[in-house]
Specification:
The complex is a heterodimer of chains A (95) and B (304).
Chain A (H helix, E strand, L loop, with lengths): L1 H19 L4 H20 L4 H46 L1
Helix pairs in contact in A: 1-3, 2-3
Chain B lengths: L5 H28 L13 E5 L6 E4 H21 L9 H21 L7 H16 L12 H20 L3 H6 L9 H45 L5 H4 L7 H32 L2 H23 L1
Antiparallel strand pairs in B: 1-2
The chains are: A mainly alpha (95), B mainly alpha (304).
Chain lengths: 95, 304
Amino acid sequence: MVELAIGIILGCCALGAGMAMIAGIGPGIGEGNAVASACEAIGRQPESKGTVTTTMIMGCAIAETTGLYALVIAILLIFVAPRSLVGILMSYIAK
Amino acid sequence: MKEKSFKFRIIDALLIIGSVLPIAFAIVLRVLTNPEADGIVITGANIFFTVKMPIQDMPITESQVNSWCVIVSLFFICLYLTHGISEKGGLRRQMIAEWIVEKTDDLVKDNMGDFFKSFSPFIAGVLGLSAFSSLITLVGLYPPTSDLNVVAGWALLVFILITYYKLKGGVLGYLKSFTQPFAAFTPFNIISEFATPVSMSFRHYGNILSGSVIAALVAAGLTGVSNMILGRLPGLLGEFPLFRVGIPAVLSLYFDIFSGALQAFIFAMLTMLNISSAFPMDDWLKRMDKKRAKKEKQSNKKSA
């Protein structure tokens, strides 16, 4: 039974990590939009290239934050959560 | 140009040694203490030893040691760049030092305004420390910025600065700003206050960490591919991971160099924007005017 329980914990952690990374879609679309608009702006006003590029990189970095939250959660689920959850299970069984 | 004296050259050599030695020390420490592993393992920072503390034990990890090595190395680089500079100029390093100072001054003035002119050393420090901490992966060391604790410390510093400059507009005004636009928004405003350092630290750490994780996964995958294709060959030839030679370096070009430098720039940029937008200039000016008026009144009373 304990093996089954540990297997369920590990599997659910992996599934959760995979599902958390669905959040990568949002920043991808957002950054794509930002870069497309920046390209348009540079095409219209080539002399403002420096400012537009800096602003775009800043905006991309900020839009990326939500994706990185998902990444951090996925990394926690893969590397940190299984050990602590199995520890909780073991302490429960020991009682 | 004047010929460099013997003493000048000796000091130069000492400064260069001082900037290289910490990195070499960190490499030696890593080679000596890193446990040997089969294949590719993704781990956090090594813990060297733990110091007993009253509330909680303090582990001394690789990230702390490496970041101190970077700090010492940067200190000696700065000393080297400013050694022997004069008003006349002439040394090549003076050009580099002046270029760095001018660029950071311009950056700070453009983004923060004239009031925060004195912030440029701090911004340059954050930028240099962050960039060099990320670029340290190029010599095979554990980057301190891929440890959340290091970056969270920097973000905490920025948070303290933000709160300090918000309080400059008056404590009452600071407390009142939480109830904008109306009182029901108070919990959300408090959350958004704490979200700034959290998002800053997560952004920096997540970018660097994801780079190293992806690089490790790609290296593991390429080992598998070369095993699959060349595994039938006899002896050492079959074990040699041919595809791992060179291909991960292309990824490293993006994840280590570009991403590291970009994240350092973004961290410094967000620091500047957050601090300068937190400062309520109008309220501060009003308070200063009031104070001045009070002082004048008192001095008038005294003189009368």
